[in-house]
Amino acid sequence: MKVVLVNPPPYQLVEPYYDTPPYPRTAIAFLAGYLRQHDVDVGVVDCKYDRLNYSDGIQKVLELSPDIVGFTAFSNEIVQAAQFATLLKDREPRIITLVGGVHFTAIPEQTLREFPDFEFGIAGEGEESLVEFTCYVGNKNTEIPAGVCFVDKAGTFKRGPERVPIRDQDTLPNPAWDLFRPADEYILHTSRGCPFACTFCMNPNGRLVRPRSPESVIGELDYIYSFANPSRIFFGDEIFTVKKDRIRHLCQLLIEHGYPERFSWKCQTHVACIDQDLADLMKKSNCRTTGLGIESGDDMLLMNMGKSTNAKLIWDAVRVLKRAKIKFESYFILGQPNETMESAKRTIDFAVKLNPDIPILGIMVPYPGTKIAEMVAKGEGGYKRLSANWNDYNKQFGNSIEFEDLSRWRLELLQLYGYLKVFLANGRFLDLARFAWNYRFEGFALVSKILGLKLNRKFDSTMINSLALDTKNQRP
After folding, report:
1. pTM higher than 0.85 for the full model?
2. Kind and range of the H or E element at 71?
3. Which CATH architecture has domain 181-467?
4. For labelling alongside 82, which of 54, 284, 370, 417 has CA 20 to 30 A away?
């Protein structure tokens, strides 16, 4: 069986760092590496990274002559993946299509019924299930592999057993980065899982943190530098420093191998998982930016959302990073349950006091499989669902929810107000100018939406050169 893994084109060109990224898709790199380790012929087509529209992407897939084409998708990508599958099946009906990823894992049956051109799906961790699936489609008399789902000809939803996640991450091969053109940035995952239970997160990798050894991470970096020369690495773990001694060891190895001279790196972590000794070592190994999931400065809200944090821990983490001279990126969410204009302004005021180098203020999205999604479905927390279109499930430019007493328009106005106030109230006029330039496409989209202007930035590969997208400065 020949398998081709696809990252479809973006819905629209609004967020260059995500819509036309400077990095290849990590999920399909992991899957491709595992398939190759098990002697499965595999190829990749990353339309976002290679700036391919649907026509060019489908042509590239067909040139690889696949038997199976697989997609991975977040909620705001699932429509594009389904559209690609539909167009592909129109061209070559014999190809078997399947989908995986966090959206499918949350609502597998609904996804297959909503998008029937996905013939199969894989719920949960995909590596082992995908290898077993390649055997299963060649012999339908075998049992359905763990994690594999489909709707049979009679319209009955069928599902294999639950897939047990891979405990020892060092048994996984390196992601197949060499199947992509060399990049200036890579997103590496050194662990899977998050021990916290945030109401707005599905936590698809489970609450047990399954780390890779630092030596394994260095091995992956050595492998990347054998054919590429990236200047930036993003360690994309949910909480990079949750096991602090492991990260201390990794930082020491980075220094010993001379990597601080080759690339700068960023990560994201929980405010309870950083201390001064670790931050200083991270800085020495050329960590430039650390993202903190702050969400709110209200201790009661933080407790209710399962963050296991409070304002004191937040301030302690911020002071640690500032002393280490590591820039910090702060993630806030407007649209908490029962949000009001006053409570949203308190969140913004807290952001002003923290004065992050890079403030990120998103609007709550009821992602499938989360507690927030359950509340929205029941009409709890003051929520009103605005859209059933998955393309509206975007934290910055979506249109998924509002409140009985706080309209979507006012939420978006608060979002813009928050960005401006963090810079202006702290006298950071030059920083605001830089931020506005680096995020000019996003800013234009947000202001246009607030003003009620129709934004038509549907993706076409011919737009890339005219837009002159510069993603290098998007995420320091």
Report:
1. yes
2. strand 68-72
3. Alpha-Beta Horseshoe (3.80)
4. 370
